[in-house]
Specification:
Blueprint: H1 14-20, E1 24-29, E2 32-36, E3 43-48, E4 51-60, H2 67-76, E5 84-88, E6 96-104, H3 110-131
């Protein structure tokens, strides 16, 4: 018999869904989860109001102080959509290079959520490749 595809519509918590899809999930606080797959950078999920903010910390920017590097990072933003490169200045003395994405979660489905993690994996590979030109 040919493969017959079945769409399963069921509700589960974010943590259960991610665990069922081979992610490691750590609850950092009431509204923040640290999520990763084997050999991938952790993604932080931060719930605020009706939005989930996804981010990956790529490290400090102090060693990247080159106009050429910043230009190439900004240029790369057009290739890694829906993920974006940004600078997290929460700690003013240690600004961080981050990848970010956000989604409203009132009606988020499993494919949409998994696609965010897939997009992050592609973006991390591209950014790390670019940064390897500037960090020795």
């Amino acid at each position: 018999m040919q493969n017959i595809l079945i769409r399963d519509l069921r509700y589960s918590t974010m943590e259960d869904f991610l665990n069922d899809n081979d992610f490691f999930v750590e609850k950092v606080s009431e509204n923040i989860l640290k999520v990763n797959r084997s050999h991938e950078q952790p993604v932080y999920l931060n719930r605020q109001d009706n939005t989930i903010y996804f981010s990956i910390d790529l490290g400090g920017i102090k060693d990247l102080g080159s106009e050429s590097c910043y230009f190439k990072l900004l240029d790369l933003n057009t290739e890694i959509l829906p993920v974006s490169i940004g600078i997290d200045t929460t700690e003013a003395s240690d600004p961080r290079l981050v990848l970010v994405e956000s989604r409203e979660f009132s009606n988020i489905d499993s494919n949409e959520l998994l696609s965010v993690f897939d997009a992050f994996e592609i973006a991390v590979d591209k950014v790390e490749g670019l940064l390897s030109e500037f960090i020795k």
